Amino acid sequence: MNVEQTDLPGVLLISPKVFGDARGYFKETWSRQRYQDAGLPGDFVQDNLSYSRKGILRGLHFQNPRPQGKLVQVLQGEVFDVAVDIRYGSPHFGRWFGTVLSAENHLQMYVPEGFAHGFCVLTEAALFAYKCTEYYEPSSEFSLRWDDPDIGIAWPLDSAPELSAKDRDAPRLRDLPQHRLPVYP
Ligand SMILES: Cc1cn([C@H]2C[C@H](O)[C@@H](COP(=O)(O)OP(=O)(O)O[C@H]3O[C@@H](C)C(=O)[C@@H](O)[C@H]3O)O2)c(=O)[nH]c1=O
User: Which of 2, 121, 128, 184 has the least C-beta neighbours within 10 A?
Assistant: First the structure.
């Protein structure tokens, strides 16, 4: 596998080794020692799977306290996946990184603890799988506006996305009280 730093420090792009043959392909999607040696956490505690139709956007989400690092990948379809550094005091506070993850490109992204995360679906549907370093804790989970102009994510969308009620009402980063934000480092 190959692991690349992105231009947002802490966010990693992982290309698993894909063994193609006449039957199709095989890949290891996570192996603790190898991923740990490459700088990822070894202590994921929860696996999640979501299915969404084209035009759906989930995010931007984060947990604090109990921040979650997320190793994300797409099993079917294509999404534009985004991480935003929202750690109070970070030199990269408010900066985002986004890329296309798809079943075809096999890319995985690591979104570190303290970053907000979201994605929009670019194909008819997408099956989105991820491992988390912390358990889901609804009382610590928050949404941040997907189109916060202070963050300025260039979502590759031609029309307004479909959102959950929670995400539609989400505040801007500048309106989140400081104690809600994860702290750097
Ligand atoms: C995230 C999550 C949700 N749920 C439940 C709560 C709710 O009834 C239902 C749907 O939850 P949500 O609307 O929050 O699902 P969703 O919008 O898919 O939330 C996810 O979005 C992406 C972008 C992330 O980064 C994830 O960490 C997570 O926040 O599933 C769990 O039971 N466990 C979980 O870990």
Answer: 2
Q: What's the pLDDT at 111?
A: 98
Q: Which atom of ligand 1 is nearest to the CA of 50?
A: 18
Low-confidence residues of the chain: pLDDT under 70: none
Atom of ligand 1 nearest to the CA of 59: 23
Would you call 136 a catalytic residue per the annotation? no
Say whether pTM exceeds 0.90: yes
130 is catalytic: yes
Catalytic residue selected from 92, 106, 110, 130:
130
Report domain extents, the chain: 2-176
- Calculate the CA 27 to chain-centre distance: 21
ipTM: 0.99
61 lines ligand 1 (CB under 6 A): yes
Class of domain 2-176: mainly beta
